[in-house]
């Protein structure tokens, strides 16, 4: 179990992480989402003791990361695959991790097999690895100590479609065996497929969290009408928020029945009126983080 309570991190006057609280539970994959610069990496760095928070606590199974005697056997961490030492071979990188954790040498070969790096590839220097190979190497190091918690920042970056599918299965299996997974990703489809729970961050603050299915269910009502010019002001007068999809349909933040009544009262025939569940994670993400999107700000 990962628990963050009121974590705040400032850089000078800038608040990168602002009073962030959430839990990632055993047996679940928790997807951590947010626009560029929202504070995901900083939050993860606080969790694994690389950045000191100005306020709040971050714990794994109730303990501070710094208090874990052999952290690698409890928490597998992959934060920045491109930060691995380029001069070492992949194998050397894993041998160092294996020795630090006090594990038998055979774990190195086992992990190379788990992440499908060949013996030949493992003898190459990391600087000559592709990003996808570095990710695989980082995942191997994270899994080496057979931890029960995984913290992964953008692990799908650079993986090919087969690699993404492989990682998806790996994380699902890990969680199904009772492990806790916290992973950030920009790949919303990836998160939509794999995550059980979601934590959405924008401008350093949590804007939504909960079970993925519940969050997607609360996506609102989808309305399609040739009379949008009548429906929009009627919704505004009722104090109901709405947004426009690319195809000119509206996503309205109210129950289907209520939206139907308002449209009826406005004399607007509807072509479609249904829960906006199908809109999926992308719509929810853009709506929740609208005020923090660079593109939104520019517009
Ligand atoms: N060491 C630092 N000094 C100053 N500002 C920092 C530092 N580290 C992070 N920040 C700022 O904190 C904010 C959050 O950064 P962070 O890397 O956590 O975002 P992120 O959500 O992981 O973004 P991305 O999706 O682009 O990786 C950004 O505005 C970033 O510039």
TrEMBL record:
InterPro entries xrefs: AAA+_ATPase, ABC_transporter-like_ATP-bd, ABC_transporter-like_CS, P-loop_NTPase
UniProt keyword list: ATP-binding, Nucleotide-binding, Transport
Domain spans labelled ABC transporter: 2-228
Family the UniProt entry places it in: Belongs to the ABC transporter superfamily.
Organism: Nocardioides marmoribigeumensis
Protein name per the record: ABC-2 type transport system ATP-binding protein
Gene Ontology MF terms in the entry: ATP binding
